[in-house]
């Protein structure tokens, strides 16, 4: 009974530190000034600048792209040829990553057969005994048949089993074949979602109407909200020259930053576009500089034999990269940041802190 | 020596605030009640609801999809035609994003040649002088040759160099050609990894056996774990009508939420599916509503001339979007959240806080 | 006036807790030791191990891949055939996800026509009345015409409208047709960006020169920085056997971890490669184990009829998955972690804590 009573006493007694009030204006001033600094820091930096009171969420995004434009190439080896979207956009789906063909090496009418290897130190031969049947060097173009045949009037090379005739990719056109690609335009449709905040938005703003969309073109100053980009404009904003990039190809990033502050009004949340070359343009530190890949179109001759046209396509791959973080007031980060700030405030209440500060001030005031 | 002694004294002296014990039940009650509130908040909200003691990691995911089904179209312009997966799924690989063709405009037997432009205000002409050789309007279909030729019995338009005959894409079928696509099914295989926690899981749960997988179909109530989805079901759960969406196409998100609490038992971590239309279906605020793209199939005639079949394909692109955050007990977030909470508790120990609270309580008790 | 004076007094008065200095070496030692522990924890664990003072950012990445190698298949059903990159890499673009064909089932010369269904319990028939015109079972291969025709000398099945002849995919070659694919190599070019820190880097390090790149091959011990990987090596590092995986296909993840500490010198930030099989190799819990998809090549016969070659391709999809978090000193996390730590330190100043600790120590020292 007495134990219970004392226990209740312990629970309901309020224990508080005895405090001492020092009525010195100097000490009081230093104290309040330091408090002010801490509070200013907390309110000004943690809250206003860094938004420490916010919960964050990462963006989920979907992108659809549609390229428009056509070109006419009149280089000799491809005859005169007209190119439209179905020809030069690979793959055609208009995903978040699309490739625009700008330069090609075409090897038509390849069939599965035998032909002399391209002349390299290891393929040049003088007699059949220089070639090994079944040998396949990864750097060569096919499997040796063991014969040494005439490559040209002056050279003999080992015969290989391959898609013949072999591709000769050393004569890449100096000027991009589809130089006109710089005037193609691309419409980028981008929808984003912040699932934690149930926030959904598109890069085509509500105030943009259909007739504006039909004629506009992105420009950072005059048309910052237009989602239609001229390829030349994208490349030049990334600090590159379209024509020189088009020769050997490259990868170009279209970065869409959806960093949003969802606390105030949703209107503050809009996409910020930037452009950046993503591959290395420095040629002395890379194998296969630029961007190219080989693909083939398969045909059947009337007698059922399979032939293909091999295309080594150079071009610019545009990667639409969407990133961003949305912040919104959340109780946990607020508590955590405020709690941390209070810890600092309580430091100021310690006599030792104020004493140190006072001594520092006195020292500096004397030296001045 | 004396200095060292006093220094040791300073180091080993324990300095603690003098405290005052107030044996007032009212004050004690207010004090303990406030403490209780703070503790309740910390335990209840920060720990239980927000799981502030957890470290988090973002998901890494791989998706494989496989569509099944076939359809028969009997619209007049494409003759009667049978469609299977290799025909209507583009690209065929079954990536995290797959496209099901539902409606098409076919322009067969195009060749590189000359033909009259489609009649528009700018292409209609009366004499050759209305057309400029080499002129190419981005909105037209080719490069003008400078001639004015008969488009029909009544109209003359400028001749262009292009893939001829030109595509006429104004007569889109009102009813989706592949209406039967609504009964296609898709199997989605999804593996996720949380690298920080070395956690690995698939959306095909261990308890699912092969025979169940062969016959099941996702249904939120009866079969919530089945990874096979009927396309019609996906579209209707997203609040759309398959047949009307199939006409002009669209983009549909299959969202898989892998938010997991890895603290308790791993069995709690399972995928939650949701479906959402990602493009804008509102037609008055968009160019090119829906989703379509052009692709071509290239052929060679027996005499070696290249022809192509141009296909403008409309359809639904399904984007499988995997997101989620896993949380697991971590020492740093626990310390940080607990530390912040202690700061608040120490506030309660201040006499000024309790005094304010007491006055508030007295004020309210008097007014009532 | 008097009010203002007292108000000023209140503002400038410095209120500090009265403290009591206890000159007991035992108490002082316990106090300082506990302080030391807390400080050690904060400095050692939160700062050094967990880097609690850092702000973090997620990686943005672009990947380009290029496969090299050729193979020769001599299985009977495909005749002798030479395969190069344009044949076996699908899609050809060299994206972050690429597929290498290793085994195929080819069904050439399919046309839109009628043929007997493959014999299954539901397709075997004895008379026309067993087949329903227009009936299409999702598990069958086409739409029934209502006729019962000879499938073989001994069996009759319902006739279907489909791409004929039908694919028979039960005779998958036991040994992967492109077994030589294990010696193909892939060059992975990966650029990463941490937008918050304006940090940009490639997986081809500055010290790597062009001649090294031409001959090197990734090896964890001898060439850890070489971005060229032999497919066999990738698969074996993931704990799988290439030849057995090649038969039915699979999905293999090439994980690149770009976790970086950007505080010290940027040289510490380099990619760490790891490999992991992502699909389920356990065959008793999955429909369609492995990885395959169907695609077709379309041809036109001289008389204009469309035929296709249907290919069911099995192979390994390589997904390059880039992840990572960069950390750099940030003022907000520093404040928050330090604040939390200070809260713990202030706990030690409480007499109740020290009393408890003293009692514990006394208790243990007596029992020993």
In short:
The structure is a homotrimer of 368-residue chains. Chain A has 368 residues and is of the alpha+beta class. Chain A has eight helices and 19 strands.
Q: How are the secondary structure elements laid out?
A:
Three copies of one chain form a homotrimer.
Chain A: H1 2-12, E1 14-17, E2 19-22, H2 25-49, E3 54-58, E4 60-68, E5 71-73, E6 81-83, H3 85-88, E7 89-90, E8 97-116, E9 143-150, E10 156-164, E11 185-194, E12 199-202, H4 210-215, E13 228-230, H5 231-237, H6 242-248, E14 250-257, E15 260-261, E16 272-277, E17 292-300, E18 306-323, E19 325-329, H7 331-348, H8 351-367
Parallel strand pairs in A: 14-18, 15-19
Antiparallel strand pairs in A: 3-19, 4-11, 5-6, 7-8, 8-10, 8-18, 9-10, 11-12, 11-13, 14-16, 17-18
Membrane topology (chains A, B, C): Multi-pass membrane protein
Keywords (chains A, B, C): ATP-binding, Cell membrane, Disulfide bond, Glycoprotein, Ion channel, Ion transport, Ligand-gated ion channel, Membrane, Nucleotide-binding, Receptor, Transmembrane, Transmembrane helix, Transport
Catalytic activity (chains A, B, C): Ca(2+)(in) = Ca(2+)(out)
Detailed description of the structure:
- The structure is a homotrimer of 368-residue chains.
- By secondary structure, chain A is α+β, with helices and mostly antiparallel strands.
- In chain A, 26% of the residues lie in helices and 36% in strands.
- Chain A is built from eight helices and 19 strands.
- In chain A, strands 7, 8, 9, 10, 14, 16, 17 and 18 form an eight-stranded mixed beta sheet that branches. In chain A, strands 4, 11, 12 and 13 form a four-stranded antiparallel beta sheet that branches. The first copy, chain A, has a three-stranded mixed beta sheet with strand order 3-19-15.
- The longest helix of chain A is centred in the N-terminal third of the chain and has 25 residues, at 25-49.
- The model of chain A has no long low-confidence stretch (mean pLDDT 82).
- Chains in contact: A-B, A-C, B-C.
- Chains B and C meet through helix 1, strand 1, strand 4, helix 3 and strand 11 of B and strand 2, helix 2, strand 8, strand 10 and strand 14 of C.
- Strand 1 (14-17) of chain A pairs antiparallel with strand 2 of chain B.
- Chains A, B, C: It holds the Pfam family P2X_receptor.
- Chains A, B, C: It comes from Myripristis murdjan.
């Amino acid at each position: 009974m007495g134990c219970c009573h004392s226990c209740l006493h312990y629970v309901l007694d309020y224990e508080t530190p005895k405090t001492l009030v020092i009525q010195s204006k100097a000490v009081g001033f230093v104290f309040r000034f330091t408090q002010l600094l801490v509070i200013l820091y907390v309110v000004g930096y943690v809250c206003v600048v860094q938004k420490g009171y916010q919960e964050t969420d990462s963006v989920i995004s979907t992108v659809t792209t549609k390229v428009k434009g056509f070109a006419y190439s009149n280089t000799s080896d491809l005859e005169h040829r007209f190119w439209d979207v179905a020809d030069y956009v690979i793959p055609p789906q208009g995903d978040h990553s699309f490739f625009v063909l700008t330069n090609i090496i075409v090897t038509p009418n390849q069939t599965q057969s035998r032909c002399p290897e391209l002349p390299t130190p290891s393929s040049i031969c003088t007699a059949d005994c220089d070639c090994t049947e079944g040998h396949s060097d990864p750097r060569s173009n096919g499997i040796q048949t063991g014969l040494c045949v005439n490559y040209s009037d002056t050279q003999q090379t080992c015969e290989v089993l391959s898609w013949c005739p072999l591709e000769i990719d050393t004569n890449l056109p100096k000027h991009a074949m589809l130089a006109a690609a710089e005037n193609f335009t691309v419409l980028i449709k981008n929808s984003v979602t912040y699932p934690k905040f149930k926030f959904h938005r598109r890069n085509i703003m509500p105030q943009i109407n259909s007739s504006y969309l039909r004629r506009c073109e992105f420009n950072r100053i005059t048309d910052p909200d237009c989602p239609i980009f001229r390829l030349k404009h994208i490349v030049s904003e990334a600090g590159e020259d379209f024509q020189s990039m088009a020769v050997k190809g490259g990868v170009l990033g279209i970065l869409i930053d959806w960093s949003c502050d969802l606390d105030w009004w949703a209107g503050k949340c809009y996409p910020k576009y930037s452009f950046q070359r993503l591959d290395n343009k420095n040629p002395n530190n890379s194998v296969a500089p630029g961007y190219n890949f080989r693909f083939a179109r398969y045909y059947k001759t009337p007698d059922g034999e399979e032939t293909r046209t091999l295309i080594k396509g150079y071009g610019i791959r545009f990667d639409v990269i969407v990133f961003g973080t949305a912040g919104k007031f959340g109780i946990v980060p607020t508590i955590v940041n405020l709690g941390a700030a209070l810890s600092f405030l309580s430091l100021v209440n310690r006599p030792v802190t104020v004493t140190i500060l006072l001594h520092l001030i006195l020292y500096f005031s004397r030296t001045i």
